[in-house]
Amino acid sequence: MEVDNDIDQTLLQQFSCMGTTDKDDLVRQLQKLVGHHLNSSTAAFFLDMNNWNLQAAICSYFDCQAPTFSMVLVKDVTIGEGESVPPDTQFTKTWRVQNNGDEEWPHGCCLQFTGGVQLCEAERVPVQPVQAGAITDLSVEMRSPPTPGIYQSKWRMVTPTGSYFGDIIWVILTVAEGGTLALTQQLSHLSDLGANPSPHVPHMLNPFTRLASSHNVFEDQVDGAMDLRPNEPE
């Protein structure tokens, strides 16, 4: 019995050594793949967290190292409460959003359609980089369905690698005969362009300006005449 116990202890020790050797090798492989700046303790932590699966440990490491982006909806600029669109009409949907995170949105981010009714041909709309804390407008050209009703469309920001971030933003669209949104947007566009005065309109002079100028000249002449009077004897 004592011999058997000695054999069992020896086998356990050998298996233990084999396990330790394998883990050390996995630690070295993880350090080699992600960079030797990763110390052995941290490498062992990621491996142990993933049951010593090397591939899963690598994914976990890069997930932790990747920057996190953020976005919050500020308000709906167009298609707000009480606005409606006529059937089969092109319009512009605009959201005002803020990068409320600590990282700038990189090149390659997009606004992506993720559910509901797709109101435009494009599923992705490119978004320019936005600095942390900055506010920007995101616009998508859309077309209303031909049938009156209420339609919903869901959109989200997505990173160049395909990860969603930030608030879910919606289009809640009321399609109705006689909808005025298209006309409202056209008038707003004309207002933004501004209007220069016509060159054929004559310039109107202010008569009070001329009167005031003549009055000042008269006062100057009187003051000059008073200065030319002979001095009175004392």
TrEMBL record:
GO BP annotations, alphabetical order: macroautophagy
GO MF annotations, alphabetized: ubiquitin binding
InterPro entries hit by this protein: C6orf106_UBA-like, Ig-like_fold, Nbr1_FW, UBA-like_sf
Protein name (record): Protein ILRUN
Domain called Nbr1 FW: residue spans: 78-175
Organism in which the protein naturally occurs: Frankliniella occidentalis (Western flower thrips)
Entry GO terms, CC: phagophore assembly site
